[in-house]
Amino acid sequence: MNKKILTIMTALVLALAVAMPVMADETVKYAKVEDCTKSDSYDQTAPKVTPDGSETAKTTLTYSEASLKIVTEDKGQGRPAGYSWLGFTVKMPSGYTKYKLTYNGKTEEKDVSGESFDEYVGVSPKKLEEATKAGNEYLEYNLDYEWVKTDNGSESVHQTILIRIKLSGVTLKDEQNKEVWNNDIYEEAKPVPETNKKPAATTNKKKEKDNTPGTGVENVYAVAGLVAVVTLAGAVVLNKRK
Q1: Is 172 within 8 Å of 179 (Cβ atoms)?
Q2: Residue 177: pLDDT above 90?
Q3: Following DSSP, what letter does each residue of 86-111 receive, concatenated?
């Protein structure tokens, strides 16, 4: 009996020893995301960036207190003139060399030769204004990545990267170094709450006096007063109809 139990325990230990490396290999790993905004897109000081959830299924980079400026010419890497470009470096999860990116309803597929690549999102006065008028606190870019293993095309993992720019903490200068976005412009663009809206103006037209004998308001009250004096019953009837 003891020999049988020992045999079972030995077999169980061996099974666990074999399974443990496999379980470690199957642990899901996600890409590491870091800011890589270039100096041509900010004024003197790099924007403040707060990372959240790097190497997890959802990674967020929040930009605040940013002094941005619009690039004056095509800088390559998908950064044309007319925008300030916030960049982030994506370090591919181990074993994955291909990805599919879905953004704004469109999907693109790329093979990555190295271990990492850079992505950029554009910031313009129009985009900042539209997000503010919509009542949002941030201008957001939500990018959905699917990491794919080339040695096993059916194996993939999804990761969402959310880029958020705080609307109230951003200044943006155009090609002439003029501020086209700041806190004052932000406050003016914000939607007015329903409780603070002024009521619609009313017209105060004076009522024209009706001079036609026997039909004016004054004549009606005179008649009513006369009836009230003449009979008490008439007064009761009038009170009930007011």
Answers
A1: yes
A2: yes
A3: EEEEEEPPTT--EEEEEETTEEEEEE
Give the global pTM.
Answer: 0.68
CB 151 within 8 A of CB 96: no
Q: Could you give the CA distance from residue 191 to residue 240 in angstroms, rounded to a whole number?
A: 49
* Residue recorded with tokens 């879905």: 102
Which three-class secondary structure state does DSSP give residue 123? strand
Handedness of CA 94, 48, 122, 132 (dihedral sign): positive
Q: Which residues of 121-132 are buried (b: 16+ CB within 10 A; e: fewer)?
A: bbbbbebbbebb
d(CA 66, CA 109): 32
pLDDT single digits (tens) 83-126: 999 999 999 888 888 899 999 899 999 888 778 999 999 999 99
